[in-house]
Amino acid sequence: MGNTVHRTLPDPSPPARLLATRPCCGPGPERRPVLGEAPRFHAQAKGKNVRLDGHSRRATRRNSFCNGVTFTQRPIRLYEQVRLRLVAVRPGWSGALRFGFTAHDPSLMSAQDIPKYACPDLVTRPGYWAKALPENLALRDTVLAYWADRHGRVFYSVNDGEPVLFHCGVAVGGPLWALIDVYGITDEVQLLESAFADTLTPARLSQARFSACLPPSSHDAANFDNNELENNQVVAKLGHLALGRAPGPPPADASAAAIPCGPRERPRPASSPALLEADLRFHATRGPDVSLSADRKVACAPRPDGGRTLVFSERPLRPGESLFVEVGRPGLAAPGAVAFGITSCDPGGLRPAELPADPDALLDRKEYWVVARAGPVPNGGDALSFTLRPGGDVLLGVNGRPRGRLLCVDTTQALWAFFAVRGGAAGQLRLLGTLQSSPATTSPSGSLSGSQDDSDSDMAFSVNQSSSASESSLVTAPSSPLSPPVSPMFSPPEPAGSKNGECTVCFDGEVDTVIYTCGHMCLCHSCGLRLKRQARACCPICRRPIKDVIKIYRP
């Protein structure tokens, strides 16, 4: 490795802030330990279900799924990696380890100061920063490392992999203690020897993925589900204490409970990304002929004819977010195309009885609804991805390969995703997770912004905005419904009081016609009539078939 000169990085913060001493050269082949005492768990500041070993290096949660909040006994230096091994993982609960930092000294905390949950109870207080480890990464013997830099950014890596930007805005002007919540499926963690984090060059910073922040509702949902599960376990234990049970037919829902809805331990398809956020689940509102797994990640439709099998995402999709699903069951026949849609209607306001079997029937509702067929799916168990771009394009991918634009939607409002699950033996849909794209901050030349001399300069993200599949337009000229696709060009919004916009076909007439059934308003009436008369006429924006064109009269 050669001779190494150790130096202390300059820190503009007050002298009380601890700063790790890092080598000035690049990363070496061996992990460099931090000088001084290795971090241990605080012996007193911990949740009531936490048990520590004799060295305070191993924390085990006894009973339940919560009350597992712990802290380190000393502050963590900047760039010092807090390294944790997940010793024991117990499937069955929702959610996994929560981790982060706090500016509050655990030695000054009383037992009443430590709540049941780090998220959302602690993170809603000033001076606490924590998030959840994606559940798909919370595997036994996984080594998690996380650290803070002098810009207040928190990164984490799994098994010495690539860093993920985890948090921004952490106050680094004073001491920071590590905050670790042994939560959910994570039963036991062990603190390992800490190490220095390598300096990230701007090139590596641009490749670091940002871990999308979970909304408080996601943490509340996991806590609610775990409480429900715990209550059910208590009821089941009390039931076993009963002296006898009168003979009789099984309960009405016994057959539904016997339907296998996909084991949670089954690995993801190889074509799906390795690092996915696991915060998204199906909404509790669903069609009466579809059942959900306990964690609401798998939807099953056992009836061969399908029936009313609509399922919705629990929260709206974020612009730039990709949703990954597994369609069908591995080893079984391909389920064919999948009905996928976007709506502005909050599923919480719907009644299961009013959900139809045909998703197209939803287009007559007053809310914003768009439906398309995604596929065909080559084999059961294949992965589909749906990416909502900030401009409104919804891009489809099959097994990691782009298939082009599926829809074009209005992103000025909250949009939920929904599916119609195909029925039969292959009738299963599994949520694999989501992936949030980073905002692009590239210069016009395409080079990364920021100084090349400051390897710890502010984060610079770059996103490839061009793709042959995603940029291929699905607009067909009126004169030839089979002409090659041409990308539509939309003019910026005109000032109020001007005309209603130009027709996307002739670019001359005023837009005054709405297309039925998709609802897009993008044509003048003359072009709408000509387009309707064509064979296989379709909307220039979303490619849905045109059933009719309706002229709109404005006051």
TrEMBL record:
Stretch list, region Disordered: 247-271, 437-494
PROSITE patterns: NHR, ZF_RING_2
Keyword Zinc tagged: yes
Compositionally biased tracts (Pro residues): 481-494
Signal peptide range in chain numbering: none
Naturally occurring in which organism (per UniProt): Felis catus (Cat)
Alphabetical list of Pfam families matching this protein: Neuralized, zf-C3HC4_3
Name of the protein described by the UniProt record: Neuralized E3 ubiquitin protein ligase 1B
Keyword annotations of the record: Metal-binding, Zinc, Zinc-finger
Composition bias type Low complexity, residue spans: 253-262, 437-452, 462-480
